[in-house]
Structures are given as C-alpha cells and as structure tokens.
Design a protein that fits this description.
Layout: H1 11-23, H2 28-34, H3 41-53, E1 57-62, E2 65-70, H4 74-89, H5 94-105, H6 111-127
Antiparallel strand pairs: 1-2
Helix pairs in contact: 2-3
C-alpha cells in the first residue's frame, strides 16, 4: 500500500493525532495544551482543518465548540504507516525491518520482550501454515 499525499502527516499533524488517540476526543484548546512546544492557536486550527480534509479526523459541535476525534483506529493508522515504512525503506521486506530494529535496539530489549517477540514469530509461523 502506497500512501498518497492525502495520507502522509507532518510532524505537527502526527502530534495532534497522538493527542486525539490518547484522549479519544478533544477541542483545539485541549490539543494546544497537550502538544510539546505548541504553535499558536490559529496554527492548530489550520492543522485540524487539514487533518479533516485528509479524512483523518472529524468534528462534532458541542456547547458552541468543535470537538475533534480520529476517523480511523490507531491500529489501522499504525498498519498503514508501517506498510509505507516497509515499502519506502525496506523494499517491502518485514525481515529487513525486523533485522534493522533488532540491530538498533537489541541491547535495550529485556529478556521478556525478546521472549514475547519470539512467541509472536512462532504464532505467525503457525497461522501461516
């Protein structure tokens, strides 16, 4: 799956989406308070409009304020982003992505995390047959 410009998010747009996924729904003012080193209120409002145009979020009017919420689940967004990452940097190869991830972070992974990853691989092997 190749992401179009409509689906790609800027750093600030990703920050806003992170806030909305974490909170479930939020006003522009609440989002402004929750993002690090926030831009001005009008910039946040402009980014919210852009995210709506890209069909990532929608809004409802409540007590004369717009309340924003994600349109797609965080899991679906993760899958889409990961698919784009695999295609862009790893020639579509999950094996290359996992090898790179382990190369970069193996020393930071606990035995429990490595065991869980091994179980996930074993489960995938079973499901694939």
């Amino acid at each position: 799956m190749v992401l179009t410009a409509q689906h790609k998010l800027s750093r600030r747009e990703r920050q806003i989406m992170d806030v909305l996924y974490r909170m479930g729904r939020a006003t522009a003012a609440e989002i402004l308070e929750a993002i690090p080193e926030p831009p001005g209120y009008s910039a946040v409002r402009a980014m919210l409009r852009t995210l709506e145009e890209k069909k990532h979020i929608r809004h409802e009017e409540k007590d004369l304020r717009y309340v924003f919420m994600p349109v797609v689940s965080r899991e679906k967004a993760r899958r889409s982003a990961l698919s784009h990452l695999l295609e862009t940097f790893f020639e579509g190869s999950p094996e290359q992505a996992v090898a790179t991830l382990l190369d970069v972070s193996a020393r930071d992974l606990s035995d429990e995390e490595l065991d869980r990853m091994a179980r996930l691989i074993e489960d995938a092997r079973k499901d694939g047959r």
